[in-house]
Amino acid sequence: MKQSFMSFAASAAVLAATVFPSAGFAATPSTSALSAGDLIKGVTNTTVYYFAPNGKRFVFPNEKTYFTWFTDFSKVKTIPDSHLSTIPLGGNVTYRPGRKMVKITTDPRVYVVDQNGILRHVGSESLANTLYSINWKNQIDDIPDAFFVNYRVGTPIQTASDYNPANVMTSTQTIAQDRQFDETKVTVTIGSVSAGFVPTTLTVKKGAEVTWTNSDITAHTVVGNGWSSATIEPGKTFARVFTTAGSFDYHCGIHSVMQGTINVVN
Question: Global pTM?
Fold first, then answer.
C-alpha cells in the first residue's frame, strides 16, 4: 500500500511527520508502558516516532528512512493521544549509517551516511563501486531539500579505508547508538494532572538514572516507597538512580491521581 506523507516546520529545524497506513500495524492495544528505544504512535493518527532515552520523540521523515532501520511495523506501540502530545519533539530520525548512500535533490554529489547524521562525500565512481559494489547506483536515495537540515556535512571519503559500510552498520545497530544517547540516563515527562507521568510505566536497566521533568504549569512531586523528591516547580527536574532490579511504584504527593511505575531489569 502506498504511503502518504505530511511535513511541518518547528523552530529552526524541519520536522516531518510520516503518515503510515493503519493497516500496516499489528493489532496492538493502547498502552502507556514504554522503554527507551520503543516505536510509538497515537490512537487517532499513524505518525510513527522513536521514543528516545532523553524522553523525547523523534519522527521518521519518510518511509525510506524508516526502512533503513526496520523491516516492518510489528513493534510499533500505540499510546493515548494525550500521552503522545506530552512527549516533547526531539527532531528527525536520519538514515541508518552504512545502509545506503544518499544525495540531496538539488546537489549532484553522492554521500555516505556516518553516525549522528554526518554526510561524507564520495569523490569518485570507482570509490563508490568499491564501497557498495558494481550496483552502487541502486544504493543511492534522494533526500528532499527540506530534510537536509537534519544532516551535517563531514570530511570527504578519500579511500576505501576511510569508511567500511558493513563495519559502520555493525557499530550502529540502534538509533540510540547513532544519536550517541547515554542509555543509562532516561527521562519521564510530568504532564498535566490528566496526562500524568509519561510514560506511566517505564522499563530501564539496573543502574539507570531516571529524571522527571516537569512540563506542566503547576508544581508536582515524585513519591516512592522510602524515597521522594522535593517540590518540582514547572521547568525543573528530579533525578534518581535505580540500583536494584524490581518494580517501583510512585505517585505525585500533591495530585494522588498521578501514578507511575519504574520497572528495573538486569
Answer: 0.87
The reply to whether 87 and 113 lie within a common domain is no
DSSP line for the chain: ---EEEEEEETTEEEEEEE--GGGS--PPB--EEETT-EEE-SS--B-EEE-TTS-EEE--SHHHHHHH-S-STTEEE--HHHHHHSPEEEE--PPTTT-EEEETT----EEEEGGGEEEEB--HHHHHHHH-TTGGGGEEEEPGGGGGG-EE-PPB-SGGG--HHHHHHT--SHHHHHT--TTEEEEEE--TTT-EESSEEEEETTPEEEEEE-SSS-B--EETTEE---B-TT-EEEEE--S-EEEEEE-SS-TT-EEEEEEE-
User: In this structure, are 195 and 252 located in the same domain?
Assistant: yes
CATH of the domain at 229: 2.60.40.420
Structure confidence by residue, pLDDT tens digits, 147-197: 889 999 999 999 999 999 999 999 999 999 999 999 999 999 999 999 999
Structural domain for 197, as ranges: 185-265
Does residue 177 fall inside a structural domain? Answer: no
